[in-house]
Design a protein that fits this description.
The protein has a single domain, classed as YaeB-like fold (2-Layer Sandwich). It is 26% helix and 31% strand. The chain is built from 2 helices and 5 strands.
């Protein structure tokens, strides 16, 4: 399987300037979903998926003492390819 689009990760880093720990948490999860697209804590977003062609998933990651990190990505079943859609830090109330 291939992780084709990583641009949203770098855009998040440039836009939100997360800590080194938050970047490592996100980068590690993103690297792992290339080989395990159903990796917990990701969950499918049925409304955005087109079964049986692809599935859109979202994961909420602990931010290492900072705001949680939300990752959205798409997994194509036929090729196994994974494309990041968005990475962002969620604001804490």
């Amino acid at each position: 399987m291939a992780l084709r689009n990583t641009r949203p990760y770098y855009e998040w880093v440039d836009r939100e300037l997360p800590s080194l720990q938050a970047k490592q948490i996100a980068r590690s999860f993103i690297a792992d979903i290339a080989d395990q697209p159903w990796l917990a804590p990701s969950v499918p977003i049925v409304e955005l998926s087109l079964q049986p062609q692809y599935e859109v998933r979202s994961a909420l990651l602990a931010g290492g003492g900072e705001s949680p990190i939300q990752v959205w990505y798409r997994h194509e079943y036929a090729t196994g390819d994974v494309d990041l859609i968005e990475v962002t830090s969620l604001s804490l109330p």
